[in-house]
Request: fold
Amino acid sequence: MKATILSILSIILVVILVIGNIHWNIRSESPLSTIHPTEGENTEVENKEQYFSLDYYMSFAKSWPDSAQQVLEDKLTDKQPFHILLVGSDVIGDQELGLVTPLQEALASKYDQYVTIESITYDETSSDYVNDNEYETLIAKKPDMVILEPFLLNDNGVVDISTTLINLNQVINETTDDLADVTFVLMPAHQLYNAGLYPMQVNDLQKYAESKDIPYWNHWEAWPDSKDPKVQDYYNTEGDKSKANEQGFELWSNYLAKKLISD
Reply:
């Protein structure tokens, strides 16, 4: 009897071992049996899949002109960069001290490589700019958005404001003839203390922008009032010319950065 029971138990044990071995082999061959990634690995995979988000980038452009937002969306859809061009007299500064470098850093921190910005300057009057066909340099850059300081301080006392606006109109028309989807944004140069003619020129520029439905970014809102002596702390004067200093460019570029990057 004992021998019979032992034989039965031996057979059962062998069957269990065989079934267990077959099950293990099947499990090992199945893709579902591979090691599951850890939570951190899952996150990394998801991040790689979601590293490009149209909505993410577009959320920063809420303060952009509508036309520029549309072009940005089209560019992002094709994963192509959107190009911004700063144009003005020397008052907008250069790479070492000016608007473009802090804006490059700010844009790269949010839009990565998908929004770029550079600058070109021309240190003569708006009439010289038009007569020299300097707008061709602008057009050659093929910008999607132009932020233009239309040489008001260079024109001050030399070119009357009505002629400045005619010149500005020609620059815009020449550019849009070649670049149909380009967006123009106008802005004044830096604030000045207790100036006479200059604020009137700036006021006329703003009225022109409104009449043409051109966005006008009034960074003077961020400066001390022109009647406040403290405004002199934000620019330097050399002879009959003035230019924003480090404090002035910081204030000015911060204003533009907030326009280009919504919270």
Remarks:
- The first strand starts at residue 82 and ends at 88.
